[in-house]
Write a structure and sequence with these properties.
There is one protein chain. The protein is an alpha/beta fold. Helix content is about 45%, strand content about 15%. A 5-stranded parallel β-sheet has the order 2-1-3-4-5, with helices on both faces. The longest helix is centred in the C-terminal third of the chain and has 22 residues.
């Protein structure tokens, strides 16, 4: 879970709330400009993004499904549409239950993430198995 929240106190509170149940690995950025450095090869399944940051920020940095944190439905719809993979919005004062339910719904709707690193690892494993099979059985055919 990537948190992109400018206010340090709100970011810390959300991070604590998400870590309590030990269901999510959480990293935090204070701006959209910090996202790439915070991710650094780590594949976030979802981003929770402060709506204020999306108004003038470069949202293309968010290459994962994202939920906008904002105050009302109108802003939520408008700002979520600005994100490449916007999955909706959530009130900034949402309860823990609402937060977890919205996150779970967005992650389940997105499906598991397949990263280039995972694809490369699977391809290398498949190539290794093919080479091993050829060595074991290729000379007997």
């Amino acid at each position: 879970m990537l948190l992109v929240v400018a206010h340090p106190g709100i970011g810390a509170a959300l991070e604590t709330l998400l870590r309590i149940e030990d269901r999510y690995e959480v990293r935090r950025a204070q701006s959209l400009d910090q996202v790439a450095a915070v991710l650094d090869g780590w594949p976030a399944d979802l981003a929770l993004v402060d709506g204020l940051l999306t108004q003038n920020g470069r949202t293309e940095a968010l290459a994962m499904p994202a939920i906008v944190l904002t105050g009302n439905l109108g802003d939520g719809k408008r700002l979520s549409a600005r994100l490449p993979e916007g999955r909706g919005w959530l009130r900034k004062d949402a309860t823990a239950g609402e937060l977890h339910a919205t996150i779970d719904e967005a992650i389940n709707r997105s499906g598991p993430r397949v990263t280039p690193l995972l694809v490369a690892g699977l391809a290398a494993s498949a190539a290794g198995l093919i080479a091993l099979a050829w060595l074991l059985f290729g000379t007997r055919v």
